[in-house]
Amino acid sequence: MRQIRSDATDVDLISSLRQGNQHALSILYDRYGGLVYTLALKLLDRRDEAEDLTQDVFLSFWKQEKFDPTRAKLSSYLCLITRSRAIDRLRSRQSEQKSIERLQQIVVPETDLPTLLDSATQAEEQSIVRQSLSTLSEHQRDVLELSYYRNLSQSAIATQLNLPLGTVKTHMRQGLIKLRQLLQSQIG
Amino acid sequence: MPKSISEEEQMLAAGYVLGHLSASEINQFGAALANNPELQAEVDTLQSAYDKLPQGLPPVTPPPGLKAKIIESFAAESIANPIVNSIIDSSKSTQSEIAPTSNQVFDWGRILAGIGLLVGGLLAFDNFNLRQELQVAQQINPQAVASVLNQPKSRLLTLSTKEDRIVGNILFTPGNWKQIIVSAKNLPPLPVDRVYRMWLELANGQVIPCGEFKTDDHNSIFIKLNATQKPPAGVKAKGVFITIDKSNDPLQPTGERVIQGTI
Q1: A101 and A143 share a domain?
Q2: What is the pLDDT of residue B73?
Q3: A80, A169, A184 member nearest B51 (Cβ)
Q4: Which of A38, A124, B97, B212 could lock onto A120 through a cystine, CB 3.0 to 4.6 A?
C-alpha cells in the first residue's frame, strides 16, 4: 500500500479509509470537516449536537458501500447525509415541526448525484456558490434558505416574510433556476 | 436550459424539486419525465443546485478537539478490524443504518459476541488454513479485549511502518503490560523462516520482549501479547516496535525495526 498524500483524490482516500487507514480519515476531515460542522450547526443550532452529528457523519459515511465516490461528489453526499441525520435529531427533539414533515420527504440518493462543479476543489466550490447566491435577489435567496435550513413549507415562508403564497413559489422556482444557471455557467 | 425544454417545463421542474407540485401535477410531470431524458437531466441539475446551498454558508471552524475525537473513535473501531469487520459486514443488512455517535461509538457487546461466533464457526471446519486462523483467534480471548477496554486508562497506539504507513493499533493499559491487544492489517510479507517480534521500549533504554507472531494469509493479525518482564517502578514506556527475526534468533532486539508505535 502506498503512502497517502494530503492531495490524494477523494476516491483514493475513501478506498484507503475502507481498508482502515486512519490517515485517510484525517485528510478527509481536514477537507470536509468544516463544511459538515457548519451545516450541522446551521440545521441544529446547538454546538454540542453539531459536534456529535459531525462525528456521526465521519464515522459512518465511508461504510455506506452503495456510495460510489467515482460517480458522486463527496461534498454533496456529506451534506445530504448531514441534513438527513439532522432531520432524525430534530424529529427526536419533537414538538413543533410541520417543517420536518417536508424534510422527511427528502430522499438521499445513494449513487449518481448529479454533476455541478464536479471538477472544482472544495474551496473553489464554496467560493462559486457564495458568489452565485449573492447574485440572486434578496427574496430569492431568503426563500431558498428558509426552505433548506429552516425546513419551512411555502405557506410558512409566505407567513414569515409576509408575502403572498404565489409570490413565494415564484421566487423559489426562479431563484433555483437562476442559481442552477449561475453554477452551470462556471463549468461551461 | 436544453433547447427542447420550455420555460414552463423548467418552472415545473423547479417546482418538482422544491416539492411544490400538487398530486395531479406530480403525476403529469412524472409521466413527462419518464419519456424525456433531457427533462430528467434538468431535474437532476436543479436538485444538484439546491443541494449546493450549504456550500454558501459562512464557514464555522469546528471545535479544536473534534478531529482527535473522531480519529480516536475510528481507531477504536479499527482495533478489532481484521477479524471482526467481516462479521459486521456479513450482518450489514441489519446494521447499515446504525451510526456510531459519541455515546455509542462502538458496540463492543456485538463485537465480542461476533468473535465468539467466529471461534465457534471455525471450530466447525477442519482444514489447515482455518486451523491456523483459529490459533490466532483463540489467542485473542474476548474477555481479554473487554478487560482492557474496561480499564479507565486504556489507550490506543497507532502502529506505523518506517514509511509512515499506518498498519494498525495496539490497545493497552499503561503500567499494565500483561495484556497488549494487537490489531494490524497489510503487514509486510514475512519470509517463511521468519517471525515478527514485538518489543516494549522504556524511557531508560531498556527493551522488553512481548512475544512473537506470524500473520494470517491476508497479512493481518489480531492477537494478545504480553511483556515478559514488568517495567521497573517509575520508568515509563516510550513505545513499542516490531522486528523481523529468524525464529531461532536469540531474543535480542537486533532485527530490523519494521513497525513502531510511539507513546
Answers
A1: no
A2: 86
A3: A80
A4: A124
Domain boundary among A71, A95, A110: A110
Which residues lie across from B183 on neighbouring strands? Answer: B169, B222
- Flag whether residue A100 sits within 8 Å of chain B, measured between CB atoms: no
Handedness of CA A110, A114, A116, A118 (dihedral sign): positive
Q: What's the half-sphere exposure (Cβ side, CA atoms, 13 Å) at A47?
A: 6
Total structural domains in chain A? 2
Query: Of A70, A95, A110, which residue sits at a domain end?
Result: A110
Task: Phi first, then psi: give them for residue B166, nearest 5 degrees.
Answer: -75, 125
Question: B46 and A180: CB-CB below 8 Å?
Answer: yes
| pLDDT over threshold 50, residue B85 | no
Count the domains in chain B.
Answer: 3
Interface confidence, given as ipTM, is 0.83
Q: Nearest chain A Cα to B41, which residue?
A: A114
Q: Which run of H or of E encompasses B261?
A: strand B256-262
Confidence band of B121 (pLDDT split at 50, 70, 90): very low
Torsion sign over Cα B34, B36, B40, B46: negative
- Domain with residue A67: its CATH number is 1.10.1740.10
Contact: B15, A184; criterion CB under 8 Å = no
pLDDT of amino acid A138 = 94
Question: Which structural domain, as residue segments, surrounds residue B80?
Answer: 66-139
Q: Per-residue pLDDT tens for B140-184?
A: 555 566 666 656 667 777 888 887 777 888 888 777 777 788 888
A45: left (phi over 0), alpha (psi -120 to 50) or beta: left
A154-161: long-range contacts (C-beta < 8 A, 24 or more apart)? Answer: A154/B20, A156/A98, A156/A99
Rounded to a whole number of angstroms, the CA Rg of chain B reads 27
- Domain check: are A8 and A69 in the same one? yes
Q: Is A89 on the interface with B (CB under 8 A)?
A: no
Measured between beta carbons, the chain A residues lying within 8 angstroms of B63 are 47, 51
Claim to verify: residue A13 and residue A104 sit in the same structural domain: yes
On whether both A135 and A69 belong to a single domain, the answer is no
Q: Give the range of the structural domain holding residue A17, as residue numbers without chain letter.
A: 1-110
Specify whether A104 is located in the same domain as A172. Answer: no
Domain of B249: which CATH number?
A: 2.60.40.200
**CA proximity to A56, closest of A21, A84, A27:** A84
Tell me whether residue B105 is in a domain.
Answer: yes
The answer to whether residue B61 is domain-embedded is no
Q: What is the pLDDT at residue B144?
A: 61
